[in-house]
Amino acid sequence: MDLINEIKRLEEEIKKTPYNKATEHHIGRLKAKLARLREELEKRRQKKSRSKISLRKEGDASVFLVGFPSVGKSTLLNALTNAKSDVGDYDFTTLKPIPGMLEYKGAKIQIVDIPGLIEGASKGKGRGKEVLSFIRNADLIIIIVDVFTLHNIDVIEKELYEAGIRLNQKPPDVVIRKKDRGGINITSTVPLSLNEKTIVEILKENKIHNADVIIREDLTIDRLIDAIMGNRVYIPSLTVVNKIDIYQPDLPSNVIPISAEKGINLDILKEEIFRKLNFIRVYLKPPKGEVDFEEPLIMKKGCKVEDVCRKLHGDMVKKFRYARVWGKSVRYQGQRVGLDHVLEDGDILTIYA
Ligand SMILES: Nc1nc2c(ncn2[C@@H]2O[C@H](COP(=O)(O)OP(=O)(O)O)[C@@H](O)[C@H]2O)c(=O)[nH]1
Ligand SMILES: [Mg+2]
Fold this sequence. Notes:
With 353 residues, the protein is of the alpha/beta class. It contains ten helices and 16 strands. Helix 1 (3-16) packs antiparallel against helix 2 and helix 6 (196-205) runs parallel beside helix 7 (221-229). It is globular. It starts with a helix and ends with a strand. The mean pLDDT is 92. It binds guanosine-5'-diphosphate and magnesium ion. Guanosine-5'-diphosphate (GDP) binds at residues 67, 69-75, 87-89, 242-243, 245-246, 259-262.
């Protein structure tokens, strides 16, 4: 049977089968097979069309605006950055990403207007596959719809999911070590809802017959398959509803209502972008000089003094003697710390080398 029909058949069977303890392993096997066939289809298609979309990433992070035509992507890009993207451009066939730079709290954040996304993209409609594989390069995805098309939030999320893009998820905490013999050995550090038979069947469906498997979360069938396939990307995302100047529908609490044209809530959006990227600002103070409040170093939450040293200079770590910190991360101001010290937003740092 040809691949596309077999995929359809599996999708239908999965939909029809009720999920319970007795059917769990059966569904597991079907889903694993489906994932494998989709992968195969994907590979065949990729041979035909390599993505020709390209972009020079610049700044501390790249944020992609993902939405259907006419929702206001170009308008938002122009409002947030120095870019001049054509508003009301009805040529929806262009695939050229248009970048602009947003400077916020000392961070340089590249915002990219991604045109050309249409429904059915993940199934290969238009040049949807190319667009979706390009979106995998984002550091943050902003899903954008307007007040008339709220239902498209689900549609876009589904397209991204089908393309192997996981939003606001951590990668599954699973290690699979393949071996030559010995069968499948499952160790878990937490109680699992899935039974062992299901896990084994899913692995076997993916031609893994001998392996040590270490599972550190109570995962679902889908996340186990994600772990096995290994080619998923995990990207944070925000959802924005544009054109609230026209009217204000009831909105779920996790979306940001804005008007790109009238400039409503854009400050909130910028702050959310900064927060979602896990950025913190670290201000440097030379041992005998003044604090540089103009240009903070943009680091990630959880970063250590050592990470700052690496960012500043390759051999700073070797020359490092100690550092002093003023700010939220220390108990008393000017505290002496080592390379392992974890910094927080707004900290002032002096490094003694
Ligand atoms: N009322 C209103 N119209 C907007 C807003 N943002 C964009 N538009 C309009 O919506 C249309 C499509 O905008 P555009 O930025 O080209 O959308 P794109 O296709 O997603 O890039 C244009 O006519 C814009 O003027 C907004 O916040 N409010
Ligand atoms: Mg546009």
